[in-house]
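Protein in question reproduced for absentees:

***
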Amino acid sequence: MKFYNLLIKYRLWIGLVLVAFGIYVNYSASFWPAFPLYFVGVILIAGHFFFGPLRLIQEHLESGNIEGAEKVIKSIRFPGLLYKPIRSVFYTLKGNIAMMKQDFDGAEKMMKKGLDLGMPMKEAEGASMLQMGMLSMQKNDLKQAESYIRAAIRKGLPDKENESAAYLQMCSIMMNKREFRAAKDFFRKAKALRPTTPQIVDQIKQIEKYISRIPG
């Protein structure tokens, strides 16, 4: 795994070195001995531009290393060359980083770009819709937030933690609209999933203190 990550990180330079060595072999001997060097070198260079180092970005985000993730993002000079599904993930990850830095306008712009390109999996699209809904809530645009979160639930979410978060956001929106019966229903759905993420568990405990006392 470590070797694979190193290959992704340096494949452009390895590819260029192989092509340069291929040119030397071609010049000093003939084309066919140089062909394997050309072939592998071109594949590595093409892989750098068409697939990018997204695996490295994800690892940095999972470990909470935002600076490392940003450094990898900035190394992608030509995102327009990325394969379309990967380009979509690239913009979504860029949006995630902006969101972590509380740049909500920048996050929304990047995530919209990702959604417009089409996500590789429905669950990934649902997760992006949920994030867009949360961004809208941060901007106090509850109507847009509800639209995004309902769409996220319809598309499907990757795990029970995301599902629970979506139901809790809908519970909050319904309480704000004074639709208490719907709020209670969404809360029950969130709790039934038994999430383990500390932030979500704490949110459930906080809501549970007063939701039973509201009408509906």
Observations:
- The two ends are 54 Å apart (CA to CA).
- The first helix runs from residue 2 to 28.
- The chain has a mean pLDDT of 89.
